Amino acid sequence: MGPDHQLEMIRRVTKSLFESIDHNAIIVNALHTALAEVDAEAGSIMLPDEESKQLVFQHSVGEYLVPTGTSIPWDIGISGHVFQSGQPALITDVQSSKLHYAAVDKKTGHLTRDMVNIPLKQWGGKPIGVLTVVNKKHGTFNESDLTVLTVISAFAALAIQQAQLFDDAKLAEIARRLGNIGHDMKNLITPIISISGLLKEELEELFASLPANESARLADKKEVAFESIDAIVKTSDRIRDRVKEMADCVKGRTSPPRFELSRVDEVVAAVIDSLRSSADEAGLSLSTEDLERLPSIDADPGRLYTAFYNLVINAIAEGLSGGTITIRGEGSDGTHVVVSVVDDGRGMAPEVRDSLFSKHSISRRRGGTGLGTRIVKDIVDAHDGTIHVESEPGTGAVFTIRLPIRQVDPRPAGSGV
Q1: What is d(CA 354, CA 344) in angstroms, rounded to the nearest whole number?
Q2: Could you say which of 156, 274, 331, 351 is the most buried, measured as most Cβ atoms within 10 Å of its Cβ?
Q3: Which one, of 107, 168, 108, 99, lies nearest residue 130 by Cα?
Q4: Tens-digit pLDDT profile for residues 48-61
Q5: Closest alpha carbon to 207 in 226, 192, 233
Q6: Residues 385/317, Cβ–Cβ less than 8 Å
Q7: Beta-sheet pairing, 336-343 with 386-391
Q8: Measured between alpha carbons, how far is 395 from 372 in angstroms, rounded to an integer?
Q9: Which domains does the chain have, with CATH numbers?
Q10: 11-49 tens-digit pLDDT
């Protein structure tokens, strides 16, 4: 490749990669550029999932695709070797390579003949992913192709990091604003709670001063009034706590849970009471099954309320009129309880489903932040539990949460240890 060709290639690469600040758009542009420059049939970019220690296919382009979200262990196969070593690999006969991981070929139904794997490296040299191109259309990949892809991968890694920094800056600004909103909201909510307390005292004095027959006649109205006041106080507290949880989620930190013996059915009942009117307006039915059979667990009931609230409100948003949302107790194995939130709504595309619990979570709703499911994941993690989702477009969704019945070391709030 002559100097003029190299300069023209660099110009094309920089134009395609730095004309966007969207993380996903940059990855797609990088792949299309790579395929065009080396005449390859297909290509993918994989990024690591630190929690599962896997490389996850973020995007795939070309004549055949690897489904988004497909993952492989990050220490096996040619891609795993490149990710771990930080060194590129040019393989002209993939099927004879001892490192070849054939599971991806089986998933796509296409045979990989030759391939080039290039590490995407962050500043300082640590790999942040792998760029892979497979099956050169004419001939086999050579050192010139490796050179071209090395240049593309360097610019791609730089562009991805730039986009991540931009995302981090946006999140920092969101966190700052949420902090300000939380402060303002506390100032607004405090008098509401105080007035609610005074109103309750006034009503108690009023009902106490009524003749016995009038007091008995208005007993039901008294109960409704007091329940309404309590609901105002609880809702105010939950609004304040929700803003704080959103800010903490954006900042990447989670307050420790305040464990106490809790009933999942009681927590869910409170969620349904809060969201019944929203479900009715959407033409949806809310129901529970077998929650009362679950044993009490060590949990933070306020945090669990937020988790189930987020899952149900999301299900309402994606529901279809006439549909149902069910919170179901799946049972207990003696050490854990399992609860599912099941809906028959629109379902999710793979790229939405697979990003739900990551920092790149996607919201399909106008104005949505994608924070809701991340907050749910933070809460489940804080309880040493697990959550996973099953969904396809048009089939609804099933979120399954598994929580330990007893915490290994439930520390009381304020213990300082």
Answers
A1: 19
A2: 156
A3: 99
A4: 888 788 898 878 88
A5: 226
A6: no
A7: unpaired
A8: 21
A9: 3-169 (3.30.450.40), 254-411 (3.30.565.10)
A10: 555 555 545 445 566 667 777 878 888 889 999 888 888
